Each structure stands twice: as structure tokens, then as C-alpha cells.
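So, can you check?
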Amino acid sequence: MVIRISNYFNSSVLKMALPTNVSSMRCKIKQRNSSSRFSVECGLLSIIYNMSKNAFYFFALDWAKEQQKRGISVPRNMKELSSLCSEDWKKLPPHEKGIYKSRAKDNKIKAQMTVGNRTTIGESVAELELEQKRQEEFHQNMLQYIESIVGVGVRHDNLKNLKFIFIHVNWFYRRDIGINKYDFCPAEFAIAEFSILHGIQNVYHEILKVEIPLGWKRDALETSQETHQIPIELDDGEYDFALMYDKFSKFMERNKTGRRYPPLFTLKNSYPIVESLLQRLNEASGQSVDDYLIYSIEALFGELRNAAVKSVDERGIPLVLAETEFAKDYLSTMRGFECEFHKIVDVAQYCSKSIITRWGMTICDYCCEYLNVKMIEGVHCPYKNSFDINRQDTASGRTDNIDLKMKTLKILENRVTIADMNGVSKEYRDKVSTRSYEEEKNRRMENKVVIVDHAKANTSKSNTAALNLPMRPLRAPKTMAKALSGTQEGFELLNDVTNFPPIGGRGTVKKDTTRFKLPLGRGRGNC
């Protein structure tokens, strides 16, 4: 009996044997007198079930089969399998990688053509229900995790020391990769540790240099111009995703609990943006994205606030209100925590580094008072004046660097901008509309000022001659109009009523309507 892996979802045998936890299925599926291929393929089910069917998925499947044929045991854990075959995947020639990519593409097309109920836009109803159920389960697991972590901190009086990981990603363009699925091209990201006692710490920030594919440059320029102002294909940006993954993994290793990475907290609407960044980082290293969990920072904010206020007020705020309150971002105007690039460009409200700092300060503003944590400027709340910001920059070594400013200004001058409807960009209009002091002075000296004094215009001949003003009103012309100059008849013929042809109709002469004065009568209506 041989059941192929590609058909294991449609197999009635495996459907009956599939337990809730597929990873333990290899211990429950046993059949006597079965071929070795069946045991090999069934042993891989726990690996395949959770892997996304991309090119690396099919390579890992073939690699695991080859190892099983050689008598080498294959790990059942997806992470371990990915780490073992990642080196072989990197060494694989491009033409062989293309074979696996084509297999992944064909599998995707075949899955989309599966017969079943679909919506008006072609979505599978079964997949939508499964995805909705998966999202609900993920949401419940997230709330349970946050509630359990915060509850442990409250019971041990250690809530203010709990550490969480914040991440924010700016992007250039959004590309559709399926129905309600998008891929975001990252432009900048920042990740940091947060605790109520120490605020934001150990920030890892990068501005990226990515190659914009054909057809997406316009979208990238529009997004950049409207938000973060990062030029596309920045020369000084980081382009080595393998190096960035190495730094990112070291950052996560420091906060690892046992064998699990801590979840990454970001805005609820930014899940796919962070996933796109992690996908690029892991593709460069051959690792799996499923090792990281992305949770809602609004849910964390609501749970921390309710736990902190619990000693004073038993009434907690619901999740919807926490999301609304956190989305206000009342600290968006603060300065001093953005990166060097956004400091010079002066769009700190869009800087990823500034955004995660504002997240931490917002949580501290709602929690520190009830946890007896003293608010420190620059840690739990913004600075009150610009002098403290400059002093903090000096203490941290971020003094004014003229070379850095000139370099950034040069980048801004050379960046490409979007033209308006008339074909002229805003930067060009600002450039040509501004005049220097010398240009304005020369313009005023070249144009002589003429003063017109109407009170003296009729008395001075020199002024009237210079101004060329008329001394008396012009007379009407005595010449005949050009239209009438060639006519032989005079104006009298045109006005002759007696010789005018009859217009009574039907060839009859018009009746004479001349009124004669009647003689006087005797009155009373009698003539």
C-alpha cells in the first residue's frame, strides 16, 4: 500500500487517522505489511503539515526522502529540518531552484482550481471558514498568553520588570500575492525591548536599500513622499538581509525563554507588514517564519493598564476601548527619539525608532502612576524642552555632525519626487519660486517705479507728456461704416415706408389703418 504525500489531505485513510495534533500522528499510524515508502512518507507528515508550500517546501520534502532512503533519521520538527537542509538549499544551482519554484507555482494553481463552493471573487468558502477559525483560535491564544504573563507578574509583584519586544516596519509598496494576501517591501524597521521600569531599551534600527521591481517605482515614490521620506534604493541603506538576520536573531536569542522566542508586539493592522520583513530575513538565512509570533500591542496595552489600575479601580477597559485609546498617538509631535535621517528630514512622526519609543511612553503614562514608578524624562515621558533633548544627544554621543547633515541633504536633493497634475513637482516649484536677497534687490533696481499723481496730471504738461494722458475726450468719427460704404442707396430709401412691399399675406394689399378724427356727436353713444 502506497499513499503519496501530495494526496495525503484527500486520503480517506489518513483523514480517519489524523489526530488533533498532527505532530504525534507518526506514533498512531501503523500498518502491518506496508512498504517502506509508506512509512517514510507518513513519517514526514508532521513536518509537511505546518510548512508553507513554497519552493523550499518541495526541496525539504525531496531532501528528507533522500535521507530516509540512505537510512538517516530525519527530524520531525520543522525548525530542525529547515536548519539541516538550509545549507544544501543555499548551494543549490539557480536552475535547480527554478524547478522547485515551478513546482510550487503549479501546486498553487492546482489548489486554486480545486472544485468547491466559492465566493463572487473566487475565494474558496471552505478555505475562508478555515482561515476565520484559525484567526479566531490565534486571537484567543494571544489573549490567553498576554493574560497569563501579566497575571504572573501581578502575583509575584514583578509587573514593572516584565520585558516585551516591540517592532515597527515602514514600507515602500504593497503587492498582491493572492486573494486578501499582500507582500510589503520594507523600507525601515526598528525593534526594541520594553519594560515599565526601564522604558525602551536596546533598540535595533535599520534603513534598508531594496531594489524596486519594474512597475512598482511609482507606488514606492508616492508612499515615501507621503510618509517616511526615505529615498528608494538609498546608497547608505542596508541591503544584506543575511547580515540583518544575524543581528535580529542575536537580539531575539537574548530574550529567549527556553526554546521559544518571545512574541513580537506591533499594531494589529501591521501584522502582514512585519510578516513580509520576517519572510525576507528568513529567506536569506533559510530559516522558518513560523518560529516567531506576532501579537497585538493594543491588547498588551489594555491588559497592562487594567492590571496596573486594579489596586485602585476594579473596572477595566475593554479591548475595543484600549485599541481606540492607543491609536490616538498623542505623543506624535514629540522630538528627540528619531533616527539621524528623520531628524534632519524633520518627519519624526513617521520614524520607526520614534514610533516604538512613543508606544512605550504611552504605556508608561497609563501605568507608572499606579505601580509607584517615578516618571523620568526621556525614559517614561518626553522631554519638556529642546535643551534637554540636545543635552541627551550630547551625552549619548549623537552630536551635530556637519558631514552627516551635508550627506543627508545631498540625498534629499538627488531623490526622485512625484510630479503633480501639471507635470511640475512641489520641490521644483519651491526652488524656482524662491529668490535670494541679491536677486530680489536687482529685480527692484532694474524696474523703475512710476508714480502717478492724478491731482497734478492736468496741470503739468511734462507729466502728461510722460504719462501720455489725453487732455479731452475723443469725438465720434464722421466717416461712414465700412459695411455701408459700397451701397448705392441712401439711408432715406431704407427708411421709406410708403414704397415698402406689402406684407399682408396671400398677395393682398395691407389694409389702410389710418385713423380719421370723427365729428362730435350728441352724446349718450349716438352719432
